[in-house]
Amino acid sequence: MQDTEELYREYSTQVYKFVFSLCHSHLLAEEITQETFYRAVKSIHRYDGTCKVYVWLCQIAKHVWYQELDKQKKRQADAFMDTPLVDLISPESQFILAQNKMDLYKQLHSLDPNTKEVMYLRMTGEFSFREIGEILGRDETWARVTFYRGKQKLMKGRSS
Known about the structure:
Structural class: mainly alpha
Strand content: under 5%
CATH architecture of the largest domain: Orthogonal Bundle
CATH topology of the largest domain: Rna Polymerase Sigma Factor, Chain: A
Keywords: DNA-binding, Sigma factor, Transcription, Transcription regulation
CATH class of the largest domain: Mainly Alpha
Shape: elongated
Protein name: Sigma-70 family RNA polymerase sigma factor
Domain RNA polymerase sigma-70 region: 7-74
InterPro entries: RNA_pol_sigma-70-like, RNA_pol_sigma-70_dom, RNA_pol_sigma70_r2, RNA_pol_sigma70_r4_t2, RNA_pol_sigma_r2, RNA_pol_sigma_r3/r4-like, WH-like_DNA-bd_sf
Family: Belongs to the sigma-70 factor family. ECF subfamily.
């Protein structure tokens, strides 16, 4: 096997071109190429000669590229999760949502105490019907029926 400098001199341009064909970014292709040769040097003892050196280096590069894609996906997902949903909605839509929310709570306030309590527990506490029944000393069916009837009253109130 060749020494490290010779390996780099002979194959770096080819590996760079291969990586660039994957990522279409000069800066990222340079970084991945460097990482590829770093990993190749660290694992040179595992190269068994069953394929050409160039193919082996491209396999390493492809693996590094896939790891970079995973990192990018994770960063995008993290950024999305860190962005409050309100920031993704236009100011006009935020205003309408706030108004609708206010109207809904006004209507909820007009319901009888049991129905109001079931509605609040279900909508804001996100409790299951079984849990609501348990909290209010009733059964799951009562909580379901009460919620359904409350929802019907609210829908009637919105349409009138």
